[in-house]
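Students often ask what a holo structure prediction actually looks like on paper. The answer is less mysterious than it sounds. You provide the chain, you provide the ligand, and the output is a string of discrete structure tokens encoding the 3D arrangement of the protein together with pyridoxal-5'-phosphate.
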Amino acid sequence: MNEALDPEWGTATRGVRSGEHRTPYGEHSNPIYMTSSFMFDSAEACAARFAGEDPGNIYSRFTNPTVDAFCERLAAMEGGESCVATASGMSAILATCLATLETGDHIVAAHTLFGSTIGFFNNYLSKLGIQTSYVSPEDIDAWKAAIQPNTRMLFVETPSNPLTEIVDMAALAVIANENDALFVVDNCFCTPALQRPLDFGAHVVTHSATKYLDGQGRALGGAVVGDKDIVGDRVFRFLRSCGPTMSPFNAWIFHKSLETLELRMRAHCQSAMQLAQWLESQPGVERVHYPGLKSHPQHELAARQQPGGFGGIISLRVAGGRAGAFKFINATKMISITANLGDTRTTIVHPASTTHVRISAEDRARAGIEEGLVRISVGLENLDDITTDLWRGLASV
Ligand SMILES: Cc1ncc(COP(=O)(O)O)c(C=O)c1O
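The corresponding structure tokens follow.
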């Protein structure tokens, strides 16, 4: 028996119950189909499948039942018609852009994006004649002013990495629709447990599944969610031909992890909120960026767009610039110094020298990624233990 998606189900139930396809063995947990290809009883049957006359699997670069189960579950959670899975978050962005843009097209993007996304736009899409203009994410007039006749995509993260700036998705959806542009939201920081961009008018959602969707720092993966035409057809056909697809083993990990996503996100949010409030009052901390704080310039907008919570990422500027930030990071003992985020373990990193090192110093300064900025991804350890470790770090600044 397979669970059919009940449209009344909430996000947590969708994460647990959708995308289940039992075999005649009646297994309770979804199986892994670790196979590169699928076989046929005859050459005629094989030819019919290749000709599209008989639906089904051919080769795991095209489709695979474990990967499909993950896609079905994530699409149900995001409220999207179609989902495709990719080898990493970057390949989700690559597939979305190459499947939908043409030479001569133009992108308008928020200036605080993950460093590799900016690198991909500036170093690789530009070689194909696709140029990108960057604007301040919260300045709607700047978005309007940056639109050109050939603008075909608006691209944002909200909250942004690492400054947690919030983009007004409903306002950007209007601009995108008026200009025949695709509105793409990287929903990596929130996941559908906290925010569903398609509900606010986004056309496409991308994910780095490597982050909260896995939630345990084990596997690389990505996903693209949207409608049947753009995602189910165009992005799917790009992946089928070009190859950056998800492995069935990783899909099985992500499929299981979605069952606890809502619960984990709630815990990440609760601890992050308390830590952000505590950090704001600590000597040596010059500024805390967290959408849940009243001091966050877009706190009200975040509350509207993120009904599930304010997220698990905090960035703070410590006194003493880069030296102060390095001292702070080095004095922590339990927290992991690593560039990944969305893990059970609290992680800490200096964005200017790591995740955002490949963008120019001027672009970093324009985006507000200062030398004293430190990003913390709040994990699921006891809050007291995280606080003690951060206190140890701050005492050294
Ligand atoms: C917001 C955001 N988008 C995309 C990516 C890329 O994901 P991946 O490392 O899975 O390729 C990252 C990675 O840190 C990220 O933070």
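The pocket of pyridoxal-5'-phosphate is lined by residues 88-90, 114, 116, 157, 161, 186, 188, 208, 210, 220, 222 (CB under 6 Å).
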